[in-house]
Amino acid sequence: MRRFPVICLSLLVVWLAGCAGYRLGPTNGLPAGSRSVQVNLFQNRTPEPRLSEAVAQALRKRFQQEGTYRVATQDDADIVIYGEILNYDREAVSFQPTDVITPVDFDITITVHVVAEERATGRKLIDRNVTGHTTIRIGSDQTSAERMSLPILAEDFAHNAASILVDGTW
Fold first, then answer.
1. Which long-range contacts (CB under 8 A, 24 or more apart) does 87-95 make?
2. In the chain, what are the domains?
3. pTM of the model as a whole
4. Tell me: the pLDDT tens digits for 95-135?
5. Cβ neighbours for 6, distance < 8 A, ≥ 6 positions apart
6. How far is it, in rounded angstroms, from Cα 67 to Cα 65?
7. At 98, is the secondary structure helix, strand, or coil?
Protein backbone atom coordinates (compact mmCIF):
# COMPACT_ATOMS: atom_id res chain seq x y z
CA MET A 1 0.00 0.00 0.00
CA ARG A 2 2.87 2.37 0.66
CA ARG A 3 4.15 1.85 -2.88
CA PHE A 4 1.04 3.28 -4.55
CA PRO A 5 1.72 6.97 -3.67
CA VAL A 6 5.39 6.58 -4.62
CA ILE A 7 4.47 5.05 -7.97
CA CYS A 8 1.89 7.79 -8.65
CA LEU A 9 4.37 10.52 -7.75
CA SER A 10 7.11 9.04 -9.95
CA LEU A 11 4.67 8.69 -12.89
CA LEU A 12 3.64 12.32 -12.44
CA VAL A 13 7.28 13.47 -12.48
CA VAL A 14 8.02 11.42 -15.62
CA TRP A 15 4.88 12.75 -17.33
CA LEU A 16 5.74 16.38 -16.53
CA ALA A 17 9.35 15.93 -17.64
CA GLY A 18 8.18 14.42 -20.93
CA CYS A 19 6.19 17.56 -21.74
CA ALA A 20 9.01 19.96 -20.83
CA GLY A 21 10.24 20.29 -24.42
CA TYR A 22 6.82 20.80 -25.97
CA ARG A 23 6.13 24.24 -27.37
CA LEU A 24 2.75 25.58 -28.41
CA GLY A 25 2.67 27.96 -31.36
CA PRO A 26 5.28 29.02 -33.92
CA THR A 27 8.71 27.41 -33.72
CA ASN A 28 10.70 30.38 -34.99
CA GLY A 29 10.28 32.55 -31.89
CA LEU A 30 7.91 35.08 -33.47
CA PRO A 31 4.35 35.58 -32.23
CA ALA A 32 1.77 33.98 -34.51
CA GLY A 33 0.60 36.35 -37.24
CA SER A 34 3.09 39.09 -36.38
CA ARG A 35 4.52 39.11 -39.91
CA SER A 36 2.75 38.80 -43.24
CA VAL A 37 3.66 36.94 -46.40
CA GLN A 38 2.62 37.55 -50.00
CA VAL A 39 2.78 34.63 -52.44
CA ASN A 40 3.12 35.73 -56.06
CA LEU A 41 2.55 33.48 -59.06
CA PHE A 42 5.55 31.39 -60.04
CA GLN A 43 6.91 31.50 -63.59
CA ASN A 44 6.26 28.14 -65.24
CA ARG A 45 9.35 27.08 -67.21
CA THR A 46 7.90 23.64 -68.00
CA PRO A 47 5.59 22.56 -70.81
CA GLU A 48 3.07 21.31 -68.22
CA PRO A 49 0.07 23.70 -67.99
CA ARG A 50 -1.65 25.00 -64.83
CA LEU A 51 1.29 24.45 -62.48
CA SER A 52 1.78 28.08 -61.50
CA GLU A 53 -1.72 28.58 -60.10
CA ALA A 54 -1.75 25.26 -58.26
CA VAL A 55 1.63 25.88 -56.63
CA ALA A 56 0.81 29.44 -55.51
CA GLN A 57 -2.63 28.46 -54.21
CA ALA A 58 -1.23 25.50 -52.25
CA LEU A 59 1.48 27.68 -50.72
CA ARG A 60 -1.04 30.34 -49.64
CA LYS A 61 -3.29 27.67 -48.15
CA ARG A 62 -0.34 26.13 -46.28
CA PHE A 63 0.59 29.47 -44.71
CA GLN A 64 -3.03 30.03 -43.68
CA GLN A 65 -3.21 26.60 -42.04
CA GLU A 66 0.20 26.88 -40.39
CA GLY A 67 -0.56 30.24 -38.75
CA THR A 68 2.94 31.64 -38.21
CA TYR A 69 2.53 34.24 -40.96
CA ARG A 70 -0.55 36.12 -42.10
CA VAL A 71 -1.28 35.84 -45.82
CA ALA A 72 -1.43 39.25 -47.50
CA THR A 73 -2.97 39.79 -50.92
CA GLN A 74 -1.89 43.38 -51.44
CA ASP A 75 1.57 44.90 -51.77
CA ASP A 76 1.94 45.50 -48.04
CA ALA A 77 3.36 42.15 -46.89
CA ASP A 78 6.57 41.89 -44.86
CA ILE A 79 7.84 38.94 -46.93
CA VAL A 80 7.31 38.39 -50.67
CA ILE A 81 7.62 34.90 -52.16
CA TYR A 82 8.15 34.32 -55.86
CA GLY A 83 10.16 32.05 -58.13
CA GLU A 84 10.18 29.69 -61.08
CA ILE A 85 8.87 26.20 -61.66
CA LEU A 86 11.95 24.59 -63.15
CA ASN A 87 11.05 20.98 -63.68
CA TYR A 88 8.12 18.58 -63.84
CA ASP A 89 9.29 14.96 -64.03
CA ARG A 90 7.36 11.75 -64.28
CA GLU A 91 9.04 8.41 -63.88
CA ALA A 92 7.42 5.00 -64.26
CA VAL A 93 7.82 2.95 -61.09
CA SER A 94 5.67 -0.11 -61.77
CA PHE A 95 4.46 -1.86 -64.88
CA GLN A 96 1.64 -4.19 -65.82
CA PRO A 97 2.52 -7.79 -64.95
CA THR A 98 1.89 -9.04 -68.49
CA ASP A 99 3.44 -6.05 -70.28
CA VAL A 100 6.74 -4.62 -69.04
CA ILE A 101 6.44 -1.60 -71.34
CA THR A 102 3.10 -0.21 -70.10
CA PRO A 103 3.45 1.66 -66.78
CA VAL A 104 0.85 1.46 -64.04
CA ASP A 105 2.30 3.88 -61.48
CA PHE A 106 4.30 7.06 -61.93
CA ASP A 107 6.37 9.10 -59.49
CA ILE A 108 5.85 12.78 -60.24
CA THR A 109 8.30 15.37 -58.96
CA ILE A 110 8.15 19.13 -59.27
CA THR A 111 11.19 21.35 -58.69
CA VAL A 112 10.60 25.01 -57.91
CA HIS A 113 13.19 27.71 -57.34
CA VAL A 114 11.77 29.67 -54.40
CA VAL A 115 12.84 33.16 -53.41
CA ALA A 116 11.51 34.77 -50.24
CA GLU A 117 12.68 38.27 -49.49
CA GLU A 118 11.87 40.94 -46.98
CA ARG A 119 10.06 43.79 -48.68
CA ALA A 120 11.62 46.56 -46.60
CA THR A 121 15.28 45.52 -46.81
CA GLY A 122 15.40 43.28 -49.88
CA ARG A 123 17.26 40.64 -47.85
CA LYS A 124 16.67 37.15 -49.24
CA LEU A 125 15.48 34.71 -46.61
CA ILE A 126 15.22 31.81 -49.04
CA ASP A 127 16.87 31.43 -52.44
CA ARG A 128 16.88 27.71 -53.23
CA ASN A 129 15.20 24.86 -55.04
CA VAL A 130 12.35 23.04 -53.29
CA THR A 131 10.71 19.86 -54.52
CA GLY A 132 7.31 18.25 -54.22
CA HIS A 133 6.53 14.61 -54.87
CA THR A 134 3.58 12.28 -55.36
CA THR A 135 2.87 8.85 -56.81
CA ILE A 136 -0.10 8.23 -59.07
CA ARG A 137 -1.82 5.22 -60.58
CA ILE A 138 -2.70 6.12 -64.14
CA GLY A 139 -5.44 3.63 -64.94
CA SER A 140 -6.84 4.12 -68.44
CA ASP A 141 -6.26 7.90 -68.74
CA GLN A 142 -2.84 9.30 -67.83
CA THR A 143 -3.79 12.92 -68.49
CA SER A 144 -6.77 12.83 -66.10
CA ALA A 145 -4.76 11.01 -63.45
CA GLU A 146 -2.03 13.64 -63.58
CA ARG A 147 -4.55 16.47 -63.49
CA MET A 148 -6.21 14.97 -60.41
CA SER A 149 -2.85 14.51 -58.68
CA LEU A 150 -1.76 18.12 -59.25
CA PRO A 151 -3.24 19.46 -55.97
CA ILE A 152 -1.48 16.69 -54.01
CA LEU A 153 1.82 17.44 -55.74
CA ALA A 154 1.46 21.17 -55.12
CA GLU A 155 0.52 20.56 -51.48
CA ASP A 156 3.64 18.46 -50.90
CA PHE A 157 5.77 21.23 -52.40
CA ALA A 158 3.96 23.84 -50.27
CA HIS A 159 4.56 21.82 -47.11
CA ASN A 160 8.29 21.63 -47.87
CA ALA A 161 8.61 25.31 -48.85
CA ALA A 162 6.59 26.64 -45.90
CA SER A 163 8.59 24.49 -43.46
CA ILE A 164 11.83 26.04 -44.69
CA LEU A 165 10.53 29.58 -44.12
CA VAL A 166 8.62 28.92 -40.89
CA ASP A 167 11.28 26.84 -39.15
CA GLY A 168 14.00 29.26 -40.13
CA THR A 169 16.43 26.79 -41.67
CA TRP A 170 17.48 29.53 -44.05
1. 87/45, 87/46, 87/111, 88/46, 88/47, 88/48, 88/51, 90/146, 93/135
2. 28-167 (3.30.160.150)
3. 0.79
4. 988 888 888 999 999 999 999 999 999 999 999 999 999 99
5. none
6. 6
7. coil
